């Protein structure tokens, strides 16, 4: 298999990342929170921080941190319950701004996206100027700040957006790419999680320069298919295009409850509610999937999943309810209360494949 074909021209990629998005929205909408350490999430003994303002981060408060730990680090911390409907509405505003500057926008989440501005719609002279204009528009229209990374590929643009946060931007040119990567710790690389970073460290690989010193065969032998990716990014190479509307591998919904669910009835109702949210997405996107996964996290943070793959795609909300509830009933009788439930669909088929599968099923 040959090397990936390089783009004919050097791409201009921007990664836009909103600054402390959820917490910043709350501070925008409640002036009394401005300048104060804010955590979005539950304040109870079993709560978890979903997002933290920069004032809170100075005390070491981070997302996914138990609320009791966050309060211990920052006794003045103010907890605010999340308002996901508001965050989604603001995210739609931001994406409308993106669309004015590029036809190639790849959202990663509510608060970040890649834009390919090689041929930007506003005919601005540079990617740097485009990023500045986008950030100014976001601030003017939403009252929120964003940071930007500008580079010739997605990997470096995402790294760059973190360099001058909050409310800043950073440019990594083709001449700077390899040297920039060389000086970074591998744990900061997008796509290298804590476990992989630990494994790399055990081999004496702590920085991008250390990673670059290993040849492709050594990396493949120790890291499998990921070895080729590590070999490329150590050299500042990433040929992935910005792909709007990329196919989803899964879509799901989950909720952490402010009060633990202690009965089978409450758990079943919770699963149905999560299934309703996922089905709503399926109807909007006309997506069809065959695999259902139910996720359960108990009050003691033990987590389990149950999955089932069907011979044909799920074609109704009632069918999704039935499969989801049937899966969660495998944990009954409840031996401990439940703090989180989730339902996820995967194994998607496109409309044509789904129609063919349904026809075969009928015949």
UniProtKB/TrEMBL annotation:
<dbReference type="InterPro" id="IPR022880">
    <property type="entry name" value="DNApol_IV"/>
</dbReference>
<dbReference type="GO" id="GO:0006261">
    <property type="term" value="P:DNA-templated DNA replication"/>
</dbReference>
<dbReference type="Pfam" id="PF11799">
    <property type="entry name" value="IMS_C"/>
</dbReference>
<keyword id="KW-0808">Transferase</keyword>
<dbReference type="InterPro" id="IPR017961">
    <property type="entry name" value="DNA_pol_Y-fam_little_finger"/>
</dbReference>
<comment type="subunit">
    <text>Monomer.</text>
</comment>
<keyword id="KW-0227">DNA damage</keyword>
<keyword id="KW-0479">Metal-binding</keyword>
<keyword id="KW-0515">Mutator protein</keyword>
<dbReference type="GO" id="GO:0003887">
    <property type="term" value="F:DNA-directed DNA polymerase activity"/>
</dbReference>
<keyword id="KW-0235">DNA replication</keyword>
<dbReference type="GO" id="GO:0042276">
    <property type="term" value="P:error-prone translesion synthesis"/>
</dbReference>
<dbReference type="InterPro" id="IPR043128">
    <property type="entry name" value="Rev_trsase/Diguanyl_cyclase"/>
</dbReference>
<dbReference type="GO" id="GO:0000287">
    <property type="term" value="F:magnesium ion binding"/>
</dbReference>
<dbReference type="Pfam" id="PF00817">
    <property type="entry name" value="IMS"/>
</dbReference>
<feature type="binding site">
    <location>
        <position position="17"/>
    </location>
    <ligand>
        <name>Mg(2+)</name>
    </ligand>
</feature>
<keyword id="KW-0239">DNA-directed DNA polymerase</keyword>
<dbReference type="InterPro" id="IPR050116">
    <property type="entry name" value="DNA_polymerase-Y"/>
</dbReference>
<comment type="function">
    <text>Poorly processive, error-prone DNA polymerase involved in untargeted mutagenesis. Copies undamaged DNA at stalled replication forks, which arise in vivo from mismatched or misaligned primer ends. These misaligned primers can be extended by PolIV. Exhibits no 3'-5' exonuclease (proofreading) activity. May be involved in translesional synthesis, in conjunction with the beta clamp from PolIII.</text>
</comment>
<dbReference type="GO" id="GO:0006281">
    <property type="term" value="P:DNA repair"/>
</dbReference>
<dbReference type="GO" id="GO:0009432">
    <property type="term" value="P:SOS response"/>
</dbReference>
<keyword id="KW-0460">Magnesium</keyword>
<feature type="site" description="Substrate discrimination">
    <location>
        <position position="22"/>
    </location>
</feature>
<dbReference type="GO" id="GO:0003684">
    <property type="term" value="F:damaged DNA binding"/>
</dbReference>
<dbReference type="InterPro" id="IPR001126">
    <property type="entry name" value="UmuC"/>
</dbReference>
<feature type="domain" description="UmuC">
    <location>
        <begin position="13"/>
        <end position="193"/>
    </location>
</feature>
<dbReference type="GO" id="GO:0005829">
    <property type="term" value="C:cytosol"/>
</dbReference>
<protein>
    <recommendedName>
        <fullName>DNA polymerase IV</fullName>
        <ecNumber>2.7.7.7</ecNumber>
    </recommendedName>
</protein>
<feature type="binding site">
    <location>
        <position position="111"/>
    </location>
    <ligand>
        <name>Mg(2+)</name>
    </ligand>
</feature>
<comment type="similarity">
    <text>Belongs to the DNA polymerase type-Y family.</text>
</comment>
<keyword id="KW-0234">DNA repair</keyword>
<feature type="active site">
    <location>
        <position position="112"/>
    </location>
</feature>
<dbReference type="InterPro" id="IPR043502">
    <property type="entry name" value="DNA/RNA_pol_sf"/>
</dbReference>
<keyword id="KW-0548">Nucleotidyltransferase</keyword>
<keyword id="KW-0238">DNA-binding</keyword>
<dbReference type="InterPro" id="IPR036775">
    <property type="entry name" value="DNA_pol_Y-fam_lit_finger_sf"/>
</dbReference>
<keyword id="KW-0963">Cytoplasm</keyword>
